[in-house]
Each structure stands twice: as C-alpha cells, then as structure tokens.
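idk why but the lab printer keeps eating my pages so im just putting this in chat instead. protein + 4'-deoxy-4'-aminopyridoxal-5'-phosphate:
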Amino acid sequence: MTTPALWSAQAHMPSVIGRQINVVSAEGAYLTTDTGARLFDGTASLWYANIGHGREEMAQVAYEQMKTLEVYHVFGRYTNNRAIELSEKLVSIAPIDDAKVILNSGGSDSIDAALKLARRYWNHVGRTDKKVIVSREGSYHGLHAYGTSIAGLDFNREGYGTDSLVAGTERVGMHDAAAFAATIERLGAESIAAYIAEPVMGTGGVHPPQEGYFEEIQRLCRENDILFIADEVITGFGRTGEMFASSRYKLQPDIIVFAKGVTSGYGALGGTLVAPRVWHPFFEQGADSPIYRHGTTYSGHPVTAALALKNLEILEREGLVARSAELERVLARELKAIESHDFVTSTRVGGFLGGIELSSDVSAEFVTDQAIEQGFITRPLRGNTVQISPPFITTDQEVRDLVGAVRRVLDAAKAKASKATAT
Ligand code: PMP
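predcted complex ->
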C-alpha cells in the first residue's frame, strides 16, 4: 500500500488515509475541496479564521511587506517597524496596563515563552524554588514539551514516559478552587511559580468559567505570590465578544498568551503580554538587569506582524468583535433549542464558541463526519462534544443552518436507533 508523504497532525494515520479532506481554496466562511465540495467552516479552522478566508487586502499587505523587508530578526539590538507597531498596538488594546509584548511563531511557542518567563522571573527575584506550574484537568496549552507536560488532556501526555517532559507540573480539577488551595498547602507556596488556565476551556470541551471560580483562583494567586497566566490563544481578539476574555471575565493576569486570532491565521504568529511586575526587572536595572534568554528565529517577523496589524484593523473597521457578541446570542438560542433532543445531554456557550455534548447513543466523531456530508464542518472535542466556532463574518442564518445540520444528523441517528430497537 502506498502511504502519503505528509504525516498529518494529531492523526491516527491508518484512519485518515483515503479519507483526507484536501482543501484547495477558501473564501469568507466557505472552503472548496479537491472534489469540488463546498463546506461551511463551522470551526473557523482551528478556532482562528475569525475575519474569514481569502481576504484580498491581507494578501496585499503580505506582498507589500515582502517587497520592503521580508524578514530581519529581533535578537539583541535589531528590530523592525512592523514588530514595533504591532507591539505598540497590542499594548494599547491589552487588558493589562503598561504591558510588554514578546512575539513568537504560535501558541505552543508562546506557552513555552510564558512558563519559562514565570520561572526566570522568580529565579531572578531570589525565589529560586518557585518552579511548579499548576494547570487544569482538560486543559490544552499546545504540544511543545512544556505544553505537553502541563496538558490536562491525558492522551496528549501518553507515550512520552511516565514523567512530564518538563519537571514541576501539577494538575487540578477544572473548576475546583479548593483543589488549588490544597495543592498550595501540600507543595508550599514557595515552590509554585504560576497557575495557568484558558478563560474558556476550548479543546477540553468548551467550558466557560463557573461563577466565582476565577475570583477565588486569583485571590489564592495573590495571597501566595503565584503568577496568574491566562491562555487566550483561542479567546483572544474577539472570540468572547470582547477583545480579550480577560476583560469579559474580569481577570487580571500577570501574563496573557495569544496566537491564532491575532492574524486570523493569515500568519504564523503568537506571543505573550507581560505585566509590569514581571517585566520590570528585565528592563530597569541597568547592568545588573537579567537577560530573558528566549526567542525564536521568526520572533517579530515583519510579514506576520504586518498581517496582524491589518487583521486588527479589519476587526475594528468592520466591528467584528461586537458582531461576535451578537453571534454568541444567536448561537446560544440555537443550542438551547437543541438541548431537548434525546441524544443531547447539555450545551455550553462561552463567547461565539459553543459545544454540544452528546449522550452515549451517538459519538461526536460520527456526528462530525455526517455533518461534513451535508456541507458543514464541526469537530469532535473531549467529552463527546461537538465544537461550533465559525468566523465572525458568519450570518445569523448560517448559524441556524449549521446547528440545523447537526440536528438532522442526530434525528437520523435517533430514527435508526429506534428502528433497530423496533426490529
Ligand atoms: N493554547 C490553547 C488554548 C490552544 O487552543 C492552542 C491551539 N489550539 C494552543 C495553546 C497552541 O497553539 P499552537 O497550535 O499555535 O501552537
């Protein structure tokens, strides 16, 4: 048997061979495949195609930037105008006052940057035992070695040896502030560097925060000198109806990790926003100032920075963050209505991202596969949950059509199950 050269990401290869969906072009909220199928992008690719696909002015901005300066690094004394402008823009919209910006190539990169920075900071201020990172069950923080080590999805840690790839990690229940308090008690605050969470848990099944949970976590962080890190890789740049979910859920993070929505996927860019408490010693101690030894070849890449600037301009010009808030309300209504279906156990919405949790009568994989046959892309998440997170340019009717397609699949599955019982 011939096998493909491309080793797909997160794929059980024998199951995808021969069933691959080859996307050849995309415009707005729709993709076209090599078989000519037109598919509605109900997940905005991996939660990020927020301004929609195929924007001419994004192509133009990349072209212009490449003609002027395709790349130069930002190590040491070097910088470039686009990296400077983007950083200034991000500082102006960040929910952290007087933040600094570290630019990298994606979410996993930026998780590494954030967690290393947390440790480097404590080390510099003389709290050298503060190394442990606490994350949540069900969390997803990318798949580099640090993200894998703190992963709250067990299958992402499987097979790499029983220890974490990076030492010093602890996991607590998703909404269990008491478990965090117990962890602090058990390990001692002097050994914990940071707590990290997605404001709305994404890959773990779309879980918005429970009332009061983050207030309690932040209180524990403050009282115990533990840095609070918000992973806004999915939620950043409008997905929850505000530029950052930290604003919506009243979080005061010391570090915010972002990626995806910063360019809507047009460029491979991620980064971290850092609060003054953490950046201060690295900027203002003269010759004694420590060096944060981190950075990647493409940190501050001018083409991706130019794409991010244009993406942010489009979000603002077209009012897409407010539109995302409107779309959340449409989605919430549709999901409420589908809850009465026998095969749906619950639905959740936290911004313009929703999850439909299914009963054991039907699998999210099956529903996803069937929905594609009808022209709608969704995605199975942990906990037998179907992901819904279309681009912000989606119409109300398209949201109804997407949920309607899921309903038709569930109706057919139910009719088949009843028939099987009857015979
Ligand atoms: N954090 C979260 C919350 C994510 O959802 C993701 C990616 N889905 C990442 C980090 C990692 O980002 P990347 O895939 O760009 O490395």
